[in-house]
Amino acid sequence: MDSLFTDDEKAFRRHVRASIRAMLPADLAEKTRAGIHLSREDMARWNRILDERGWAAHHWPAAHGGTGWTPIQRFIFESECADADAPPLSVFGVYLVGPTLYTFGSEAQKARYLPTIRSGAEFWCQGYSEADAGSDLASLRTTARKVDGGWVIQGQKAWTTEGHFADLMICLARTNSAVKPQAGLSLFILDMKAPGVSVHPVITIDGAHSVNTVFLDEVRVPDDALVGELDKGWTYAKFLLGHERINNAQVHRSRREFTRLKALAARTPAPGGGVIADLPGIRQRVAGLEVELSALEATILRILADQTQGREPGPEASIVKVIGSRLQQSISDLAMDVMGEDGIHITEDGSDPDAGERRGWTERHLFRRVVTIYAGTNEIQKTIIARTVLGL
Amino acid sequence: MRRSDETLAEDRLLRDSARRFLEERHPWKEPAARRAAGDPAATWRELAELGWFAMAVPEELGGLGADAHRCLLILQEAGRVMLDAPVMTTLLIAPRLAAGSDSPALASLLDGAAAGDVRFALVTGSDRGAPLRVAAGRLDGTSALAVGAAEATHWLVVADGALSCLDAAATPALRQELRLIDGRAASVLRFDGVPVPDEALVATGDAAARLAAEAADLAIAGTVADALGALAAGIDRTTVYLRERRQFGQPLASFQAVQHLMADSYCEMEGLASLLLWLGAALDGDPVERRRAAAAAKIFLGRQGLAAVSRCIQVTGGMGMAEEYPIGHVFKRLQTAAALFGTADHHLHHLAAG
């Protein structure tokens, strides 16, 4: 897709590619290839390496310790990170909480939290969803009660990714029940080690522990834990979800995984001789996915090119979440067909060099059921498109 | 390819004026009503007055030097009203091939084209009949469907061995005139040892092969642009209908099942628009990337594009089935586009092999 980039951007790509290859430790790349859920230590290590270079918060404005890169430059950087098998950064701190705090937080909050988000010294989790408030987030029931010198938070958060190793939570709680549901919510910063916080693992269908249920039992937070204004939490949370949208298309990871899948297919023997990659049906599906991936990349580049020129995307950005999440699933669907029987058993076979690669694909395939669900299900996104873009 | 605010503003002006003109002078009508109305030569001169046929001509050849993106915008507008006049070859392909060859065979006709007196039709080979071939100054073989060949003054013939520009009136070809499902006219041309004079040769040998590849990708770009315009107009009309039509005491637009079908169509239309944007940029660049972008756009049109317009028929119910209502014609326009210049399966096969 070279013709969609300027010469300066192509030079920028060569520059970051060389830098990332030099900075990324081989063992971290190896771990990224092998599994979908990385440990805190691994993510923090890469975060620290990037921070030393000033690239950890690469999409933040320079005034807050970011790079000041254009949206297209960020796209290039992220694509080079994915191509090099760099670990993903923890999505909550750098991608979600950072932008929320530098946009709505107090000076004290910025000074206290932004540096440790950049360095990866502190990890965050997101306390939005609840057992009875998923897509219908505004119906959440966790409350924050005003007391002398602070607030007392009471409730229960569900599907809290990375909650078991996060230091801090950005927590949405009800502060006013006399108004309509969206109007009575506020955003708080909550210390995960505070008395009353208890974290219970939820094992997902891939067999791994990445999400949790978090009980908040009379958790006391100080006055300065409130982000922005009281009862404005819904506005801030929506801002956060807007930031998530393009990121949730996961286009770079899809491109990288697709490349690796083609390589796996090219060395996996086919029943009856030859390799899987040469079966006509597989070739056609690979070509079809290549087209869909190109459509996604070109769509994201269209939106980012607009942003680079100062035009903010509208609700049509919802389409990249819908297309991108479906594509992630289509790629792992194909992986399962490439692996056949070898993709459905979980016994370790140390003698097979591709055993780890295959296990990674199976885990991803199972865990990826979630991508059409989280960050606003695809059905919610389609309703947004129908109502706000098409005017239905 | 990044477009400055100024360039974008010019794009918009051009698009808006084309849209106004087309909606006023050539609004969509049923094919039967269209054929009854108007003289193709007059329509052609009218479009020429808008500068359509000078826009892609390089400035050094006396044209306006517009880039591919801008030409594709106009073709999208033509697609919106499902214009019958087969303008793609004259507007986009001939000027670019003229610029890419050093022969005067094409360049000398561009002034006439800009004035609306010369009308080109692209004639390509078919993978079913005898291949088009120029050898020892003679053309043999059978063409694929050549849209607009009957009303063209000149045929731009893409054959093995040579790219030539033949005077249609002076060329003894066996013509089979056909009506396409979208209402346009097309011809299958058979050539039996037709002499190709030197002055009609645009390119031979490697240069001809290079221009043939470019012509194929340009034809796909123009076809996809036309189809995208038709699809966008179809989705617009469908959403208007859904807001007006009431069933069970409420507008069809209020049903979530209907909303989600249309959201899917919208996602597919935007995906197609993105691929066309890429193709438009790639037309000015490396031929390998250009080929990939063209194949991707054509495959996406044949799969997702057709799915998108099929849903428009589904949600408009019986109206979508009626010949007097435009949605079914959008479907036929896209189905036609999907079959011309290689089906999705054809391009998928080549992409998979390469």
Automatic annotation (TrEMBL), chain A:
Domain Acyl-CoA dehydrogenase/oxidase N-terminal per the UniProt entry, residue ranges: 6-120
Domain Acyl-CoA dehydrogenase/oxidase C-terminal as annotated: residue spans: 231-389
Protein name according to UniProt: Pimeloyl-CoA dehydrogenase large subunit
Stated family: Belongs to the acyl-CoA dehydrogenase family.
Domain Acyl-CoA oxidase/dehydrogenase middle, residue spans: 125-211
Lineage: Bacteria, Pseudomonadati, Pseudomonadota, Alphaproteobacteria, Rhodospirillales
Keywords linked to the UniProt accession: FAD, Flavoprotein, Oxidoreductase
Cofactor: FAD
Keyword Flavoprotein among UniProt keywords: yes
Any matching Pfam family: Acyl-CoA_dh_1
PANTHER family (alphabetical): ACYL-COA DEHYDROGENASE, ACYL-COA DEHYDROGENASE FADE29
UniProtKB/TrEMBL annotation, chain B:
Listed InterPro entries: AcylCo_DH-like_C, AcylCo_DH/oxidase_C, AcylCoA_DH/ox_N, AcylCoA_DH/ox_N_sf, AcylCoA_DH/oxidase_NM_dom_sf
CDD domains for this protein: ACAD
Organism superkingdom: Bacteria
SUPFAM superfamilies: Acyl-CoA dehydrogenase C-terminal domain-like, Acyl-CoA dehydrogenase NM domain-like
Keywords, in A-Z order: FAD, Flavoprotein, Oxidoreductase
Cited Gene3D superfamilies: Acyl-CoA dehydrogenase/oxidase, N-terminal domain (1.10.540.10), Butyryl-CoA Dehydrogenase, subunit A, domain 3 (1.20.140.10)
Domain Acyl-CoA dehydrogenase/oxidase N-terminal: 10-90
Cofactor annotation: FAD
Coiled-coil parts of chain: none
Signal peptide: none
Domain Acyl-CoA dehydrogenase/oxidase C-terminal: 222-353
Pfam families: Acyl-CoA_dh_1, Acyl-CoA_dh_N
Family: Belongs to the acyl-CoA dehydrogenase family.
PANTHER family hit by this protein: ACYL-COA DEHYDROGENASE (PTHR43884), ACYL-COA DEHYDROGENASE FADE28 (PTHR43884:SF20)
Protein name in UniProt: Acyl-CoA dehydrogenase
